[in-house]
């Protein structure tokens, strides 16, 4: 544990032994919802191909009203300004600039799958970063090398640049990629991949997590990850984050086993394990209608905390088991998004209401995805209200109600990513519109 980031752990967090994982990070105090439990800088980050040229390769920001400047060496890296460029050059790019274009065009890179290319670039960047440091003297790299490797050994892709790092060491770095690296997002849209060793070292997974991960972008700095409490966390309680979307109710067990090398024992997995095989949802309309009515009623009576969070599987109606089938969620989301922008809005709102109930069942309280969905519901209800010719005020009431709930949830998560166009800003704008305008003076959002 010496010379690693663990030495700088805040007083409010403790690392304790865990029965199956290596350690668990527990709280030493009571945290209220929305508290930032930890803030850690990225060791290295790589942008998704679609983001190249739109975001700064150093700070990953998307500057407004300002064009990015290209590296004159390779013409393939973009920066806000010379500060970002200098930081990136000194810490890593100097080692990759000359070889980058040849490497990128080579068949050894082009023949890789999209996710392997991201890994290859991240691995190259990590090696470039390491070779700029005195190896072993950097606490983040020690922490990264102290992480458990993934369950399946995969040969590393060939990398960009030449380094005095042995093949074994590169293999050792790469073996920690699949189960430890993060997809970084801004307003819940992924923009790149990053390595955050301390976060990987500290937090175990739960499908009903009490904390979530967000990304903070600041000028001339590497991306920071913040771990935010979703609900009140009591002293000695383990702090867990979701490694994958918990909505992958049927496939997640296999992902945990193959990619991460563990079996999840969270309340949600235990709950589903007790109830057994998930049947197919009904295909015909009357049966589907009965099912959605039943689901909505069950969730209405469930209270604030999901039965998948409390683990109360006794008394769960067996007819509802099929709502955990991944196609049920997939079909509902598709139905909602197909008509939430252009209409028919009543169809969107009906599917969206069922989806809200399902989200409240499968996600923990204050989970950001519930808030994002409620914001979409509010926008759809607003659109319906703007379009309606009658004096029916019900859509406006629905928009206000969904917006209030969305605001409550997303305020806990707080702002992340790009400073412009976030969901909190959208909530504010729609809130003003709903308060101030009558139906016939506004425009569709
Ligand atoms: Zn920048
Ligand atoms: Zn360059
Ligand atoms: Zn689980």
Automatic annotation (TrEMBL):
An example Gene Ontology molecular-function term: zinc ion binding
Q: Which GO terms describe its cellular component?
A: nucleus
Pfam families attached to this UniProt entry: SET, zf-MYND
Q: Which Gene3D superfamilies does the record associate with it?
A: 6.10.140.2220, SET domain (2.170.270.10), Tetratricopeptide repeat domain (1.25.40.10)
Ranges for the MYND-type domain? 56-97
Segment forming the signal sequence: none
Give a yes or no for keyword Zinc in this entry: yes
SET domain ranges (all copies): 139-244
The answer, when asked if Zinc is one of the entry's keywords, is yes
Q: Which UniProt keywords apply?
A: Metal-binding, Zinc, Zinc-finger
Q: What is this protein called?
A: SET domain-containing protein
- Which species is listed as the source? Dendrothele bispora (strain CBS 962.96)
Q: Which InterPro entries match?
A: H3K4_H4K5_MeTrfase (IPR050869), SET_dom (IPR001214), SET_dom_sf (IPR046341), TPR-like_helical_dom_sf (IPR011990), Znf_MYND (IPR002893)
């Amino acid at each position: 544990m010496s010379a690693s980031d663990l030495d700088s752990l805040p007083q409010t967090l403790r690392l304790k032994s865990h029965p199956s994982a290596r350690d668990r990070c527990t709280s030493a105090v009571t945290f209220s919802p929305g508290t930032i439990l930890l803030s850690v800088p990225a060791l290295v980050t790589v942008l998704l191909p679609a983001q190249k040229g739109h975001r700064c390769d150093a700070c990953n920001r998307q500057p407004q009203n300002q064009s990015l400047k290209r590296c004159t060496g390779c013409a393939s890296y973009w920066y806000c300004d010379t500060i970002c460029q200098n930081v990136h050059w000194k810490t890593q790019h100097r080692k990759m600039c000359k070889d980058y274009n040849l490497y990128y065009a080579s068949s050894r890179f082009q023949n890789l799958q999209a996710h392997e290319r991201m890994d290859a670039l991240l691995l190259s960047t990590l090696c470039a970063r390491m070779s700029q440091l005195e190896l072993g003297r950097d606490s983040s790299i020690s922490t990264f090398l102290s992480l458990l490797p993934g369950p399946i050994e995969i040969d590393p892709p060939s990398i960009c640049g030449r380094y005095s790092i042995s093949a074994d060491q590169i293999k050792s770095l790469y073996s920690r990629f699949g189960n430890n690296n993060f997809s970084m997002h801004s307003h819940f849209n992924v923009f790149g991949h990053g390595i955050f060793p301390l976060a990987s070292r500290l937090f175990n997974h739960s499908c009903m997590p009490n904390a979530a991960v967000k990304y903070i972008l600041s000028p001339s700095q590497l991306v920071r990850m913040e771990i935010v409490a979703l609900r009140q966390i009591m002293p000695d309680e383990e702090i867990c984050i979701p490694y994958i979307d918990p909505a992958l109710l049927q496939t997640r067990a296999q992902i945990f086993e193959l990619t991460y090398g563990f079996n999840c024992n969270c309340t949600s997995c235990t709950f589903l394990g007790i109830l057994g095989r998930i049947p197919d949802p009904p295909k015909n309309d009357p049966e589907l209608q009965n099912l959605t009515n039943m689901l909505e009623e069950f969730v209405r009576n469930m209270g604030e905390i999901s039965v998948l969070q409390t683990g109360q599987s006794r008394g769960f109606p067996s007819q509802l088991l099929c709502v955990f089938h991944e196609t049920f969620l997939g079909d509902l989301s598709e139905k909602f998004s197909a008509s939430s922008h252009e209409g028919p809005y009543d169809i969107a709102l009906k599917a969206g209401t069922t989806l809200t109930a399902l989200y409240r069942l499968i996600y923990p309280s204050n989970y950001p995805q519930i808030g994002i969905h409620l914001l979409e519901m509010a926008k759809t209800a607003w659109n319906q209200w703007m379009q309606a010719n009658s004096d029916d005020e019900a859509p406006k009431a629905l928009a206000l109600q969904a917006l209030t709930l969305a605001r409550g949830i997303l305020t806990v998560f707080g702002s992340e990513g790009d400073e412009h166009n976030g969901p909190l800003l959208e909530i504010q704008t729609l809130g003003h519109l709903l308060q101030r305008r009558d139906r016939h003076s506004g425009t569709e959002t």
